[in-house]
Amino acid sequence: MATLTAVGIRALQTGKVAGRHGDGGGLFLIVSDTGSANWVLRKQVAGNRRDIGLGSASAVSLKAARAAAEIARAQLAAGIDPVAARAPDRDMPTFRQAAALVHGEHKGGWRNAKHKGQWLSTLEAYAFPTIGDLPVSNVTAAQVRDLLAVIWLGKHATATRVRQRVCAVLDWAHGKGYREFEAPLRSISVGLPRVSAKAGHHAALPFADMAAFMARLRSRQSMGRLALEAAILTAARSGEVRGMVWSEVDLEGALWTIPATRMKGGRDHVVPLSPAALAVIRRAKAMPTATENLVFPGTKCGRPVSDMTLLKVLRDMDAGCTVHGFRSAFKDWAGEEAGFANELSEAALAHAIANKTEAAYRRGSLLERRRAMMAAWGDWCDGGRGVPLRAVG
Fold it and tell me: Is 356 helix (H, G, I), strand (E, B) or coil?
C-alpha cells in the first residue's frame, strides 16, 4: 500500500529527516542529512537483496518513481535486469556534457566576455543539480519547468536566461540526432507563474538630490564607494567602470577609452573625464588596496569590485535607487536642467542611434562639447549650479 505523499516528501526533505522512508512494494525514499533524497527499489533477486536506484527526488516525482518501480518489478519477474535494460547509450552525452559542447561551439561568436562566463555558470547553478547527469535524450519539459519554477519569481531575469540556455542545449541535441524533438518551449512555460509587467526603468534618484547624495557618498571612502562615484560622474555603465584598467585611462589628457570588447554596443567609447571624475580616479590610485592593473579592484585578488558591492553601498545609504538609475538622472539633468542637446547626452551614454541619417551626422565623438557637459555634471553633483538652462547647444 502506498504511504508517501508529495507534501510529506517535501516535509521530509525540508526537515532533513534522514533515513529510509517506505512507500510500499519495496519502493523507498532515502533522505540524507542534508535533505537531498533519492528513490530506491529494494527487491530480492536470486536470494540476494538488491537496491535499484530510480533517480533523485528533485528530478523524479512520486508518481514517476512509482511507475518506474512498477516497470522494474515487471522486468525482474521476467528475468530482466532493470539496470542493464536502461543502461544509456555510451555515445549519448549527459545534459552537462551537451551544454559544454554547445558552449564550446558558440563562444567564439560571442563578443561579451561576461556572457561567455555566465552561460555555463547559470546552468551550473540552476540546471545541472537537477538534470546535469541525465542523458540529454531523457530530459523532459516537466523537469525543466520544475527547476525554473524555483527561481521564476524571485530571479526572473536569471530564470529566463536559464530557460533560453537549456532550450539551446536541447535544440542542439535534436540537431545532432540525440533527441526526437526540439526543446518543448511552450510545454516548459506552461504552468509557470505570471510575472507582473514592470515599468522597465531603473529606479533613479532625482537629479535635484544629487549634491546631497554625493556629499553622503563621499563622507566615507572605500573602493566600492569610489567606483560608484566614478560611475555617476562618467554616466557609464556599472560593468564598464568596474572593469576599468589603468591602461585605458589618460590622466594627462583627461580621457578614458573603453575598448569595443567591453562595450555593450561593440564599439570603442571615449569618455572625457571631468575634474571631479579625475579626482575620484586619483583617490582610487592612492588607496591601500590599489593595484597596477585594475582601477577599482575588489577583495578577491585580480578581480574588480563586484556589482553587489556597489548595490550594497546604495542599500546601506537607503538611497532607494539602482546603480544604473544614475544614468537616467544624468539624462534628465542634461535635458531638463542644463539644456544640453539630446545628441550630446546620447553620445555620453553610448546609446546606439537607430536613425541612419542621424547616426551619420553624429559619426564624430563630439568630444569637446561632451567635455563641457561632463564638467558641468560634475559641478552639479558637487553642489554647484552646473550650466544654466539652455546655455549650451
Answer: helix
Single-letter amino acid code for the residue at 306: S
Which helix or strand (DSSP H or E) is residue 14 part of? helix 6-14
- DSSP of 208-242: GGHHHHHHHHTTS--HHHHHHHHHHHHT--HHHHH
Q: Of how many residues is the chain composed?
A: 393
Locate CATH 1.10.443.10 in the chain. Answer: 207-381
SS3 55: strand
CATH number of the domain at 95-189, out of 3.40.50.2300, 3.40.50.720, 1.10.150.130, 3.30.470.20?
Answer: 1.10.150.130
pLDDT tens profile 146-205: 888 888 887 887 888 888 889 889 888 888 878 766 665 666 776 788 766 444 445 778
Radius of gyration of the chain (CA): 28
Grid cell for residue 90? 555510451
The fold of the 207-381 domain, in CATH, is: hpI Integrase; Chain A (1.10.443)
What residues contact residue 16 under an 8 Å CB cut-off, 6+ apart? 31, 32, 33, 34, 35
Torsion, Cα 225 330 377 337, to 10 degrees, reads -140
Q: Which CATH class is domain 6-85?
A: alpha beta
- Give residues with Cβ within 8 angstroms of 227, minimum separation 6: 241, 242, 284, 296, 305, 309, 310
Dihedral pair phi/psi, residue 387, rounded to 5°: -125, 135
